[in-house]
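Cross-posted from the bioinformatics board.
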Amino acid sequence: MRKATFILMMLAVMTSCHYKAPEPEGEKKGSYFGTVEVDNDDGHFVKENVEVSVTKEENAKTYTIKLYRVKFATAMPVEIDMLIQGVTIDEEGMISGNEIIPYAMGGPFEKYKITNLTGYMTDKTLRFEMICGEYPTKYSGSR
Amino acid sequence: MKHLILILMLLVGSSYSSASRESRYSSCSKEYSDTTLLDEVVVTGVRVQMVEKNGAGQVSKVFLERIEKEGRNEVKDLSGIVPNLYIPDYGAKMTSSIYIRGLGARIDNPVMGIYVDGVGIANKNAFDFDLDEIGKVEVFRGPQGTLYGKNTIGGLISLETMNPWIFEGTRIMVGYGNANTLRARFAHYKKWKDVGLSAAVMGRHSDGFFTNQYDGKKCDFIDQLAARLRVDYKTDSIKITNTTNYSYVKQGGFPYHLPGEGVNHNDPCGYYRHSLVEGLNYQVNLGEYDFSGSTSYQLLKDQMNMDQDFLPLSYFNMSQKQLENYVSQELLFKPDKPMGIWNWVTGASLSYKNNKLSAPVHFQKDGIDELILKNANSGIQSTFPEGEIRFQEDHFTIADEFTIQNAGIALFHTSFLKTGNWQFELGVRFDYEHNRIDYQSDALIHYLFTETMSDYKALKSTLSGTERLDYFEVLPKVSVSYNGDGWSAYATFSEGYKGGGFNTQLFSDILKSKMMTDLMGDLGVYFSDAAEYEVKDVITYKPERCLNAEVGAKIGKTVDDWRLDGGLSLFLIEIFNQQLTVFPEKGTGRYMTNAGESRSIGLEAALTARWNGLDITASYGLTDARFVKYNDGKADFAGKRVPFVPYSTLNVGVGYRINLGHTFFRYLYLNANTNAYGDICWDEENSRRQPFYALLNANVSLETKYFDFELWGKNLTGTEYDVFYFVSCGNGFLQSGKPRTYGAKITFNI
């Protein structure tokens, strides 16, 4: 995660100012809003009000969990969108997944492989935890 | 050179074949200085005459004789001889920055208006022209907004072209100087009973003075051609003057260099301009009242090319083109003669401007690598040696297209009340302006983040929209003066404003930033602490207000055989809502805003003394202009001097005419003068400055029966000085002042 933070800090140097752009439409309908917690080298990091959507993939068997504008460390100067694809959610809403390469910053990010993804989803609640790269990460949200 | 000699021989030959005439070009200024004569024939300066005759405040006058004898060939050559007026010679002919009394602007709206034959030049890019066949220049110092509206907070420069009521015949001039500088002029003035015709053609070429080390060529060459046609018609009750001015200029320019180094840039820099100003002035006597008006159409088409890094590297360059059409209508109503103690003028004006501007910025390989990708990739590669962001292109263009429209309407009135030796002036003007900009800016690149992407991905950034700006201004003026015998004293208080508008130069910054933000957004990366603001907030600036208080005295009298004219004034100017470029609280970039206040305190003194062929002129201006409030988001500049404003200006000149007492060799003129300026701070921190410097100029002129021959020199001591400083891409650049120049010219008045 430290590496990712460093990269993103460097990328921040590229830009000068941020002009208002329209929010992406579509997927976000029916999103959950909640808290991301990460145990990283700097301690326990919490980010509130993180939006997460869950959408069924084209194969109709697996799902994609997308975290919008999420941070994983205090020192991270930017927020990123991260997609976790190929997630299994059974009829009771139990979430599982392993060895998933997330999609972020324009492509697959192998260094932040998702392992031990577990959790559950209802109409009103979404909770899951996982190991993102080396760091235990939890999400708890509702709608 | 052979051609030049041939031309001179032909001209000399033709002059000898002409009938001998008494008219000399120097006599033009004597006739021209006769105000009564002017009033009878000229309708191009009704307001100028009202102000000159009745108003308080200082007016500097320069006549044809001085313009030609001192070689003041361009508007910028008025610097110094008008106290506190400083028009630096830098960049190109589009630059035209005017500073006076601590007021000034490098870009956008000017602080002084320039009128030629009663018609105001609409675009600052056309302010820099040659003073060929200009009979009289009057510089009104201090705000003239009550009668002339916006962008006259520093004053007004009014020029009157030559006409056959001043000189009838043909005037021919050919001159040659160093840097292969050739000037030529032909003018003819013919008068019939009620009709006068004036026609003039002027041309200039110079190889330039500064060499671009990159290609070994002169980078400040200039080719220029101008033509003027003026038709006057007058009867007892109707006066009409139509003046058409056309000029073309093609030049190099922007000879900027790093301190201690020469000019060295790889992309071409230059400027060309077509300018057409058509002005129709008319005055009808309706018995007890005079009705007058001015209708003008102006066309400006120009293009500037600039290597914006000013280095022999392929960073980025810009090509800015504009096509502007402008129409204006002014109407004035005034009594034919003062109504007892009361004299007045009332008027209205309408104007419309349409400007189509294209300003693409071309990023090249060095610019992409050094200005965009270097910072981003330096950190990435230290962590991921193989990872980096790449652009597929080795160059790309940020295209900026604008349509800017401006419409204005104004009503104004000024009353003059004269009782005994006292005179009062009360004036007010109501200005309404509507401004609109339609912008379209876009760029297309293909990028790759090697850590996550295997192929380049297209990214197009677009910025388009419309912004509007409306404002209403009320400009009052109050003054009182006491007129003694050959002297007067006055006090005046007035308000002026500099127009609001849109800073299009910031659009490439905006789109460059947006492009990178879009790229980050495309990667799914967002800046949690980024500043968010609208395009309107970045480019729009509102009018700048100026309150001016001034006291002064003037003299104009003959003592023994000495003719003395002069003036002394003290002024205090407070500027509010000053238009400044600042940095946002979050993020980087820059934007225009009305964030500043400044104060100018100063004095001006001018004296002209004439005695039996001896002319002594002196003028001195001192300005202490400081920011009262200016925090650009990075530093607080309160108390610092306003950059680019000279702390003082000085001009001293001595001219002497020797009567040779010979039928062919009539007079010998000797003239020497010095212009001095400084010191000048180059930046808001006041950390860099040009020390006070002086330029010595001189000329010797022989007036014969048929022609005048003159040798002239400017900056004879070869003083080294700088006229401009700025920072680009983190580097500070200077422009050096012109070196020693010299030459000869021959003039025929046939």
